[in-house]
Structure formats: C-alpha cells, structure tokens
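Morning. Coffee machine broken again, so started the prediction first thing and wrote up yesterday's gels while waiting. Chain of 338 residues, entered below exactly as on the submission form.
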Amino acid sequence: MTLPALQNTGVFFRRILSQFPQDISLAFAYGSGVFKQQGTSQGQMGKNMLDFVFAVDDPVTWHTMNLMQNRRHYSFLKYFGPKQISTIQNDYGAGVYYNTLVPIDGRLIKYGVISTETLIDDLMHWKTMYIAGRLHKPVRILLQGESGKLQAALLGNLKSAVTASFLMLPESFSEEDLFLQIAGLSYCGDFRMVIGEDKSKVANIVKDSVPYFRTLYSNILQECPQVVYKPQQGRLEVDKSPEGQFVQLMALPRTLQQQITRLVDPPGKNRDVEEILLQVAQDPDCGAVVQQAIASIVKISSLTQSAKGIGTAGILKTTSYSVKKLRKMWKGWRRKPS
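Came back before lunch.
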C-alpha cells in the first residue's frame, strides 16, 4: 500500500507509470484526483479516481505488451486480442481506449490510450476536442518525448482555445472570465453536463487553479497581437471589430471552421470558407455561432466515446462509474445555495 506522504507526488506518479509499457510519447494526469477543485477537501481529493492519458506511436504493439503485463485491466474485449482492441480504439468514438476503475498502489485509476497521430490531429484541428479539450486545462505532464510536431500541436491547441474564447467574450473581461471560458469549451454540448456531471464543474475547476491557468496561458496572451493583457490588474481587452474577429475566425482549427460554415451557409450555396467567416465576423451573434459550432463537435464525440466506454469498461464497471458520477452531481446540487 502506498504511503500517504507519497500520494500525488512525482514519485507516486512515476511508480504508477512504471507499471505500464514504456513506449509512450506523452503521458499526463488530470482531473480532481490531481488538482484540487473548489468544494473538495484534501481528504476527498485523495480518494478521487486518478485520470491518465497515454499517447503511443504504435497502439497494437502497446496493447500487446499491456495485455501481457496488465490483462486484468481490460474488459471482455481482451479476448479479441490487441489488433481488435486497437481497431476499436482508433475507429470508434474519439480515438481513445479507456480502462477504468483499475486498482494500483492503493488508488483507483482510469487511463486512456490514444495514438500519437490521432492526438496531434485532434490538437491541431479539433476533430473531436476530446483529448484536446482536456489539454485546454492544467494537467500534470508525466512524460513527454522529443517530437517537435507534438510540441507544436500542444502549443497550437492552447492558442486555439484562447482565440475561440476571445470570440465568445465581450471587449473587456477578467483573467478569470477567460479561464472559465477556456475550461468550458470542451463541455459545450456534452450530454454528460445534463446528467452525470456536477453543473458547477467548470467553476470548480477554475477557482482553485487560477495560478496554473496563468502559467499555462501567460506567454500566449502577452504575445498575442489581438489583445491588451494587463497581468497586474488581471484584465484583458480584445479587438471586437469585424476585422479583428475575422482574423480570429481564420485562425480557428479547421474542423471548427467547417462546423461554422455548415451552420451559416445554406445547403447548395457552396461559398468558400473565407467568404463565410467574413460574414460571421460582422454578425453581432458571432460568439454564439462559434459556441454552437463547438457544441456540435463536442456533442458527437461525447456521445460516441461514452457508448464505446460501455464495451471497453464492461457493464459492471460502467454501472459503478456512472453511479459515482451521479453521486458527484448530487453533491454539487446540495452545495448550491438555495
């Protein structure tokens, strides 16, 4: 059993990571078991499940090795072998394969496996925003390879989150307003926010983690020509002119631009993306259009990934995990002032 003093330390996380195949390009831990959230005591935090994501270059090889080391982590799908598991990972949902409610070193963990190629695609283009959205918020990087392409994609994802948020915020706003908007991007359209998640989740994530958000985004904000950033006052002013909004729209990830064009352009017109985005930039409801387009991406990926999770976790673990989420949602309701 792990000593309490080691919980949530670098040594503790490295001990967990050492129990998996080491061919990993990026490993990070995230969620309420890693970062304290408002309304959660240190004692409760130590009981929360730890969430991990492992990006791997070759999913078939990685699952082959993991099935030999950690066969009990898998549901009945283990009987289909590593190739079929990798096919399920890559071809369904958001391209992630989760094993959940896994006991390791006195804690329960959940870990998702995604191919490095799929991760980079999501970071750059927001195809599903499933893992890209998790990386909009502070995470604990446990291991990162030397891939320049992956590093550039990670930075580009953060810049995209800032740009999308600018379009949905007023001309002047606080740092905390920005961080709330960024943290909420990946929950727009997520059906789990209707049932299964605490409705105060986004605020709970941000309130106790403002310094982490500031560390993550400070350089991007200082270098961005579209905003006046006053870190001492914690205030920002963004260019809300049609010209400024057009520049921001043109910088958005490809999939988001495509979703915006589908919302705005009537079928059969087939105007080019630049023309449509110029029109949206002049629309007083520009921010609402961007939010609706983000919601359309998140809605699909959250539904399909959750459906896939029934198979990858198995019925018993899915039921147990869902009950835990519903309890958390109920506690959130009870915390709210009447």
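The longest strand covers residues 96-104. Going to sketch it on the whiteboard this afternoon.
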